[in-house]
Amino acid sequence: MPAGTFVHKSIGAAPPRRFERAAGWVAHYLIGASLALGFVLLAPDRWLEEPTLLPALAYGIVTVLAPFLVLQPALGLGIASSRTPRPGQARLKSLATHGVFGLGLYAWARLLAGIAGP
Description:
Elements: H1 20-42, H2 53-62, H3 65-74, H4 87-116
């Protein structure tokens, strides 16, 4: 991105960049934290006090739209990994990991609600 390349034909064919792995992980966690904050702001009233699984899980799964529609096409993988050797497997992996993100939102809310008490 510093060189102005935002879309690749194939990320595997792109030359490696210094610190790209670290930058990618930092961006990934910052985006995740931002999405978590977004969920808290959008969550039903009193959800943080009495967390329920369904809203957090649904939100986590909906966030898979970002990699399906933005990241994967930008890396040359196609919409929802359509240009990968096993698109179905890639899609399931993305859905599963974003589902885990939703479970994490729920687990942290339960933990915080338990610490805060009634």
